[in-house]
Amino acid sequence: MNFLSTNFRRPPRATPIKLEVIDDDEDRSEAAPEDDHPLHPKVESISLSDIIEKKPSIFFLILIPLIAVYMNLNHINTYLTSLSWETYFYGVFYLRYSRLVLNLAGTYLYEHVPVPQNPRWDSGDVTVVVPTIDPGNPKFTECLQSILENRPRGIRIVTVGDPLLVQCERVAARLRNHYPWSYIHVSSRDHPSKREQVAEAVRHVATELTVLADDHVFWPSRRFLASAIAPFESDRVGVVAPFKRVRRSTPAGEWSVASVLNLVGCCYLQRHNWELRASNALDGGVFVVSGRTAVYRTRFLRSGGLMDRYTREMFFFGMLGGRCLLPDDDNFLTRAAYRLGWDVRWQETDDAAVETTLGDEGVEKFRGQLIRWARTTFRSNPCNLWGGGGLAWQTATRMPFSYVGVYFAALCNFALLWDAAIVVTFCRSGLYNGLFGGAIWKLLGWIVFSKTVKIWPHFKRYPQDLPLIVFQILFGYVHSFIKFWALITFWDCTWLGRNLEAVDAMANAGH
C-alpha cells in the first residue's frame, strides 16, 4: 500500500472512560435484555396477500384518498384541461430543478471542520469495529492495514462461526507483529448478521469514539482519523460521515463492460457525496451516514436500548423484517442520531477520504446492490417523513430542506419519467420552435448539465473517462426501472450481493 511518509507519534493511552447505560426498555414487554439478542434474525418470505390479511386497516387508509380522487375526476379533469402546456412545462421544470439550484448553493456554502492544533481527541480515543464474513478476501487484509496505519486504540473484528474465526485470528496474528501499538480483538457470532456482529463489539468498546467500518474499505491517508474526528470538538456532534470515493479499478477511459460498471460505481458514490455535502451545509441533514465508514460517539451507540432496537428492527408498521431487518443498518443509526438530538456532520477533506470498491465484481452483484439500496430508500425515507417518536416533526422543523428535498424527493426521483414529462410538455407548448429552432437543444443541454454537474469531480480526477460519460447518463434512465422494481418489491429485505445462506451453513457445519 502507498501511504504518506508522515511520521506519527505513538498515541497516548487514553484514560478509560466510564459509560453508563440507561435502559429505557423497561416498559416494553417484548424487549430483549441488552445482552440477550436473538442470534439468528431470520428473514420472512411474505407476499402482498399476507400483508392485507395481517393488517387490512392500512389499505383502507390508502383506499380512501383513491376513492376521493375517483369521485372528483370530473372536477380534476376540468381544472387540468384549463391549464396551458406552458403552465405544465413551467410547473414540471420547477419541481424537477428547484432542488438542483438549492443543492448548488449548498455545495458552494459547505465548509469542512479543520483539524485543531490541540485536539480534544486523537486516534488513541478511537476503537474501530469491523464486521466480516469474508476474511479470506485480500481486500480485508488491506482494509485492516490501512486502519492500523492510523494508530487507533484498537480494532474489534467480529465474524461468523468457528472456521471464519480461525481465519480472522490468522490475519490478526500477522498484523499484531507489524502494528503493535493497537490491540486487535477477534470474536464471532453463530449466524451472519451485520447488526448482531456490530452490537457484539459495541458493548465492549471503552473509548470515547467508535468507528464502524466495512471489511472492504480503505483509508488512503494516515491522517484519516485526525480529520474524521475533528467535528467532535463540538459536544453537539454525535456522528461524522466521511467523504467516500470508489477506486477506479480498471483503466480510466477503457471501453469495456468492466470499465463502464466501475465508472458507474464511481459516479454513483460521487453523486451521493455531492448531495450529502449540499444538504448538510443547508440544514445539517444527510440522507444516510454510510456504513462503509462512520464515526460515532460511543455513548450514543451505548445509549439505553439502542442496540436492542438496532438488532430487532422491523418495518412497514412492524409487520415485515422477520425477527430483524438485515440491511438498512446505517439508516437506522442515522435516524436514531437525529431522534436523540445529535448533530450529524459531513466531513469532506483529502485526508478524510474513504476508498471502496464498487462495480468491479460483475454485473449480477452490482445489480443486486443497486436493488438493495433502492429498496432501502422506500423502507427508510417514510420513517423520516411520517415516522413516530417525534422523528418526523424533528426532521420537518429542524431540517426543512432535507425533509422535502432529500427524503421526499428520493421517493419520486425517477429520471426517465421526469425528463420525459419535461420534454413532452415543452414540445406541446408554444415555447417549442421546431427541431432546428434552437430552443429544444438549449433544454436538452440543460438536462445534460443537470445530470453531470454532480460528477464533475470524478472527471477532473480521471479526464480519460469523459468519452464514457454517455454511459453514466444512460444509467440514470436504466436506474429508473431498477428503482421501480425496488418500489414494488420493497418488502424483500434479502441482502443481495452476499450469499448469507452459504456463510451460515459453513459456520454451523460442525454443530
How would you describe this protein?
The protein is 49% helix and 10% strand. The protein has helices spanning 48-54, 57-71, 73-81, 85-109, 138-148, 161-178, 194-202, 224-228, 257-283, 298-301, 306-310, 329-339, 363-386, 391-398, 400-411, 415-428, 439-452, 456-461, 469-488, 500-507; strands at 126-131, 154-160, 183-189, 209-213, 217-218, 237-246, 293-297, 343-347, 353-356. Strands 1, 2, 3, 4, 5, 6, 7, 8 and 9 form a 9-stranded mixed beta sheet that branches. α4 packs across α16 (415-428), α13 crosses α15 and α16 (415-428) packs antiparallel against α17. It is found in: Membrane. Pfam families: Glyco_tranf_2_3. InterPro entries: Glycosyltrans_GT2/GT47, Nucleotide-diphossugar_trans. Keywords: Glycoprotein, Glycosyltransferase, Membrane, Transferase, Transmembrane, Transmembrane helix.
CATH architecture: Alpha-Beta Complex
Count all strands and give the number: 9
> Structural class, judged by helices and strands?
alpha/beta
Please trace the helix and strand order, writing H or E for each element. HHHHEHEHEHEEHEHEHHHEEHHHHHHHH
- Tertiary shape: globular
Number of domains: 1
In terms of topology, how is this protein built?
Blueprint: H1 48-54, H2 57-71, H3 73-81, H4 85-109, E1 126-131, H5 138-148, E2 154-160, H6 161-178, E3 183-189, H7 194-202, E4 209-213, E5 217-218, H8 224-228, E6 237-246, H9 257-283, E7 293-297, H10 298-301, H11 306-310, H12 329-339, E8 343-347, E9 353-356, H13 363-386, H14 391-398, H15 400-411, H16 415-428, H17 439-452, H18 456-461, H19 469-488, H20 500-507
Parallel strand pairs: 1-2, 1-4, 2-3, 6-8, 6-9
Antiparallel strand pairs: 4-7, 5-9, 6-7
Helix pairs in contact: 4-9, 4-16, 9-15, 13-14, 13-15, 13-19, 14-15, 16-17
